Amino acid sequence: MSIDTDSAAAWPAEIHATLERYDVRQVAYVPDGGHAVLIQMAHDTPTMRPIALTTEEEGIALLTGAAVGGQRGVLLMQSSGVGNCVNMLSLVQMCRVPLLVIVTMRGEWGEFNPWQIPMGAATPQAFEMMGVRTVRVDRPEEVGPTLDAAARMVYDGGAAVAVLLSQRLIGAKVFVK
Amino acid sequence: MSQSNSLLDRRAVAATLLANRGGMIAVTGLGAPTYDAAAAGDHPLNFYLWGAMGGAAMIGLGLALAQPDRHVLVLTGDGEMLMGAQSFATIAMQRPANLSIAIVDNGRYGETGGQESATARTSDLTAVAAGFGIPDAATLTTMDEVAAFAASLHQPQTAPRVRVIKIRPEDLVRVLPVRDGATIRTRIQAALAQ
Ligand SMILES: Cc1ncc(C[n+]2csc(CCOP(=O)(O)OP(=O)(O)O)c2C)c(N)n1
Ligand SMILES: [Mg+2]
Questions:
Q1: What is the CATH topology of the domain spanning B3-193?
Q2: Angle between the A36-43 and A11-21 helix axes, to the nearest 10 degrees?
Q3: pTM of the shown model
Q4: Quick one: three-class SS letters along chain B?
Q5: Which of A177, B7, B17, B138 lies 20 to 30 angstroms, CA to CA, from B193?
Q6: What's the gap in Å between the CA of B150 and the closest CA on chain A?
Q7: Which positions ≥6 away from A68 have C-beta within 8 Å?
């Protein structure tokens, strides 16, 4: 099994640079191949605290605590984890928590595994029905500007935004015998 | 529950844990733990939850990491903790020394009619916490133990702690604190800024 993601792609570094510029401290994630480079970068950044979660909804609660405590955070996950967050997102609406989620999309472009399709297809609606705005990125050159725009809305404006990184951008997972 | 006379009074437990709290932040699990904290006296550093079941401990973790110079106490119920028990693993890996989780365990889902929870017969949240790697987990059955634990909340610790406190399953008068989440958040942030 391998991932055909081009590990030399520039966009993970652009995301990382934006997070650093916005002084993001708590980097919560459920491991995901599409986020592997960014996760490693967070581990290698002294000002960032990587927080491995057992389930994605933990990240919503964690970042609520972080925001109330005065620290910025970000939550990284793949689209299959979005449904896990639904009820916990009540916190974000009730407490008006600034929330930035970066989601790698599965089940939408050259997907080998059909089990990724249901939650991938429902991902935008799952966020939107809980009051989280979504913004989608399809091309590598859009990643940097989109992240910056989302980060400004979240950290300066107090909004809840999910950036959806399309599977076409990330590269479909390829299963090799 | 054969030994229910030896079980503790939840309001006395909450009042003891929250007495002389100084700058300690308290996150209270939805339902009765929130009412217990309110009954002990409203406080701007109380993060009252009215939902987000399963999230209290993780909110505590986010706060503890963001506020390393303060102690964070999560006061929650067995039902609420069972829904988020896997977060013990996340907390154990982060190992915040300023986070303590007190679970008032009545073996019941009090808010919803007192249905039995898994801790009434089969599950032991202290063992669960220890199994997930919480370095210091214990079950408390006396008020002396609760008082000693309360005092320790104001001493420097070296690791996150979990205490399962065995309380009587009883339905008490509800003491309802502020419900608006944005108000709760703003109040805490204003108190933290002082
Ligand atoms: C996701 C979700 N499921 C179910 C409920 C209903 N509910 C509210 S409080 C509660 C039980 C709380 O039990 P526990 O934490 O043990 O508190 P106790 O009242 O027993 O002290 C339940 C099941 C809910 N609010 N949210
Ligand atoms: Mg209970």
A1: Rossmann fold (3.40.50)
A2: 40
A3: 0.96
A4: CCCHHHCECHHHHHHHHHCCCCCCEEEECCCHHHHHHHHCCCCCCEEECCCCCCCHHHHHHHHHHHCCCCCEEEEEEHHHHHHCCCHHHHHHHHCCCCEEEEEEECCEECCCCCEECHHHCCCCHHHHHHHHCCCEEEEECCHHHHHHHHHHCCCCCCCCEEEEEEECCCCCCCCCCCCCHHHHHHHHHHHHHC
A5: B17
A6: 22
A7: A95, A97, B47, B59, B62, B63, B66, B185, B188, B189
CB contact under 8 A, B52 and A65: no
Residue identifier of the C-alpha nearest atom 26 of ligand 1: B53
Q: Domain ranges for chain B, please list them.
A: 3-193
CA distance A139 to A131: 25
- Residue ranges and CATH numbers for the domains of chain A are 2-174 (3.40.50.970)
| Geometric angle at alpha carbon A43, from A169 and A104, rounded to 5° | 20
pLDDT (tens, 9 = 90+) of chain A, 177 residues, equals: 344 444 468 999 999 999 999 999 999 999 999 999 999 999 999 999 999 999 999 999 999 999 999 999 999 999 999 999 999 999 999 999 999 999 999 999 999 999 999 999 999 999 999 999 999 999 999 999 999 999 999 999 999 999 999 999 998 666 554
Which chain B residue lies closest to A56 (C-alpha atoms)? B87
Structure tokens at B153: 């909340």
The one-character DSSP state at A159 is -
Q: Cα–Cα distance between A38 and B159 in angstroms, integer?
A: 29
How far apart, in Å, are the Cα atoms of B90 and each of A53, A54, B59, B60, B100?
6, 7, 12, 12, 14
Q: What angle do CA A100, A53, A7 make, to 5 degrees?
A: 70
- Give bridge partners of residue B25 from the DSSP assignment: B72
Any atom of ligand 1 within 6 Å of the Cβ of B110: yes
